[in-house]
Amino acid sequence: MWLYIGKRLLATVPILLGLSVIVFAMMAAIPGDPATAILGSYATPENVERLNRQLGLDRSLVEQYLTWLGNLLQGDMGRSYALNRPVADEVFERFGATLVLAGASLLLCSLFGLLAGVIAAVGQFGWRDRIVTFLVLIGISTPSFWLGLLLIMLFAVELQWLPASGMFAIYGGGGPLDLLAHLALPAITLAVVATAVIARLTRTAMLEVLRQDYVRTARAKGVSERRVIYRHAFKSALVAVIPVIGIQTGFVLGGAVYIETVFQWPGIGRMLVNAISTRDLLLVQGGVLVVAASYVFFNLLADVAQTLVDPRLR
Amino acid sequence: MAGMLAVGATLTRLFARDRGGRPSPFALLVANPLSAFGLALLTVIVVLVIATPFLPVPDPDITDPANRLLRPGTDGHLLGTDHLGRDLLSRMLWGTRVSILVGLSATLIAATIGSLIGLVAGYAGGRTDSLLMRGIDLVMAFPYILLALAIVAVLGPGLLNALYAIAVVNIPFFARNIRGITLGLSRREFVDAARLSGASHAEILFLEVLPNVLPTIVVTMSTTVGWMILETAGLSFLGLGAQPPQADLGSMLGEGRKLLFTAPHVSVVPGLMIFALVMCINLVGDGVRDVLDPRLKSGALAAPGAATRVARETVPPAPSTDAVLSVEGLRTEFHVGSRVYKAVGGVDLDLAPGECLGLVGESGSGKSVTALSLLRLVPTPPGVIAGGRVTIEGADQLAATPEALRRLRGGRVAYVFQDPLTTLHPLFTVGDQIVEAIRAHQPISRAEAEAQALTLLEKVRIPSAKARFSAYPHELSGGMRQRVCIAMALANDPDLIVADEPTTALDVTVQAQVLKLLRDLSRERGSAVLFITHDFGVVSELCDRVAVMYAGRIVEIGPSGDVLDAPGHPYTGKLIDCVPVLGRPERRMEAIDGLPPSVDRLPAGCAFADRCDRVQEDCRHGDIPLDPFGPGRAVRCLHPLQEVS
What we know:
The complex is a heterodimer of chains A (314) and B (645).
Chain A: H1 2-28, H2 34-39, H3 45-55, H4 61-73, E1 79-80, E2 85-86, H5 87-122, H6 127-141, H7 144-158, H8 176-210, H9 213-220, H10 225-262, H11 268-277, H12 281-309
Antiparallel strand pairs in A: 1-2
Helix pairs in contact in A: 1-4, 1-12, 5-6, 5-8, 5-10, 5-12, 6-8, 7-8, 7-10, 8-10, 9-10, 10-11, 10-12, 11-12
Chain B: H1 2-15, H2 25-31, H3 33-51, H4 88-124, H5 126-140, H6 144-155, H7 159-185, H8 189-196, H9 201-237, H10 249-257, H11 265-292, E1 309-310, E2 325-336, E3 339-351, E4 356-360, H12 367-373, E5 383-392, E6 395-396, H13 402-408, E7 413-416, H14 420-423, H15 430-439, H16 446-459, H17 465-469, H18 478-490, E8 496-500, H19 508-525, E9 528-533, H20 536-542, E10 545-550, E11 553-559, H21 560-565, H22 570-577, E12 627-628, E13 634-635
Parallel strand pairs in B: 1-5, 4-9, 4-10, 7-8, 8-9
Antiparallel strand pairs in B: 2-3, 2-5, 5-6, 10-11, 11-13, 12-13
Helix pairs in contact in B: 1-9, 2-11, 3-4, 3-11, 4-5, 4-7, 4-9, 4-11, 5-7, 6-7, 7-9, 8-9, 9-10, 9-11, 10-11, 15-16, 15-18, 16-18, 18-19
């Protein structure tokens, strides 16, 4: 098992390198001359040339990439000109907040998605199945950013049960309960689409598994129906659903961009949107790299989890 | 050009009946109420949006600060106005127009580029394929929206740039799907034929391959276009798409967000519109997928419940025997649509304690369904037990409560199935599965059950049982797996073991060992065995009596020696002639001409009549009874092979 994890870890290296090449190439493709941008359009050609040399822009793209990668590996992602602080500091601070939000959402969507899928499959064609199928349709069709607004209107404005924005209360906040209250609405909003997708797939996987011969064997040996469903069928269905949960982490991490904007969550998504508006490209670069790398590791986790459940994959 | 022709041909096919007279794909789509609803709503929206320039609504960009933030229902402003006094209905209609147009364009771009990549990768194979697919994998390694954001960051905010970004991040879905199909197609005969006739690669790709992958492209488009509309709206919502004064639904929502507390209707209106639009596109998309690619139809096939449905009109009276198992008039049917397949059409059986009865017949004769019906293991739907009585331990088990049935299953009656690879759970160790069988019936601790399971594994002669205890089924050979199944069946000392072709899936050399094991252990414990097989050789080795099934009924039953030596029913005779005998090469093997009748259209009289050389006029009328035929024997034939002895 440890050997397998090691191998899988090693296999992420080329993917991470590929990600870095794409991100670097995208930023290098941006039209315009950084030196002119910094010095203004009245700069003398000599000054422009000197600055280009200082920035390393006179060297070949490959050399530039290697220098950039070297700095990156040492934790240096450059400096955000709009915030005037190191990109790495800002990015990791914001990423923490996004992880809290995304983690809570993943927990919610896995739990409720699996549960709803199993309930629908067991009561196939019955009223439970119809309700779940209907909710799934609503879930995948609702724009999450609009749902967020609706929830704010209902729970924050009308009922005043939960706060509408931020991660902590401005005055006297900071405890775990305060965090939970602030987390509830954005985490639920972010989880809705993923919950629907997971529920749909779990239902299909369960129905597929319940037709298998080994489920008949379990029934033939007198195992209780509850055990047949929650132990025999569910474990097999899980093998098919785990990679989907891995893929959903990508949608949750990406969807955080909307939700953080709606709920003023101090995460990396809102930072990216602001950075794009202010053309703070180094910040965009750093943010995209960190989130993309974390997605690679979430998928790795899903792979390992799948292998733990299914011995045939080892 | 060739591509356009192919697209045109496929489009006409969508609305025409096929040669078999089946309804057109369009008719099938509308037949599904959900898709029909989606299609109707979508049509209304699209018609409204196309007609918008001609509708009597105000200009969407004219501001009127005096009438700002009017509530819906105000005179002249059906849906109210926004913070600049612009008419919301008009802005919503124009915004929907933009959103649909942008979503469709993004879909077309993604479909064209993605399909092209998929076609080339799948057709070229080799290095081109792996290079292209590595690239696609890399794009997919980014979280979906994040990559779109990065692209917008490079290109700068704007509706067109948002469109490109969303198109690019959706390319992988098309490339992957199309590549998969193309890969399969490019190894098919018609592609080879085109290649041999001198067609160029481009001609083959666009004239031969493309028309065949078009349904997949359409399915992928119809299932992703909703997403793309949603995501472009999302980018506009963030202020990275449509720029003022132009509005799409997303940017309207973005403006409404700032007025959330004062004028919630400004964000509710466009939000509802996106929701309705995406929902009906998803409904139509699911419908299109089900019609064009039925294999993907999610969860349409019914999963069997815990026990077969029993729907008997009359129940035969309780028999007075000391038999372990007594079956009377058992009828099991499969209800598929309006068809009724009578898989078991009235079977009577008795098994004395410790007796071994062979149940023989061709595939489809109903022998396995009979075996599964005993403890209601036939899948419902489509299976229904329509009549008869199964008496075990003096009670009618077809009327048993779920808990009584559960206690019987694996307790007094145990099953051994055909293919041990598919009948053992792949994700649990074999030891665990035996322990589970024990603990389902005996209130003992896990440790005690493990000790028992280990003894059982030794009993079925699995070498180094202790090590195999924690092995998974895929780590064992076929013969070992079947020994595990036998151990599981013996776990609770059953009175009856139902063995459903337990050796068919095994190597010939292993078959004999497993059979001997089953016989020895059942004799040692005094269990009766119902042995389902199509092999008369096995019957003569193992069984005290034999019953021959044909088209769902028993046609002959009796002591196996007598039946084998002097079969009464012509069908039994033919079956015995099919068995090759070692050391008698001069014996001619005879195949039986023709096929058994379909059990949803059984003829009157004898079901075997059409294949029988002894058939006479009276064979084709009425119900032919299973008449006594010598001591302990019975035959369902009017003109048997022998005289009654």
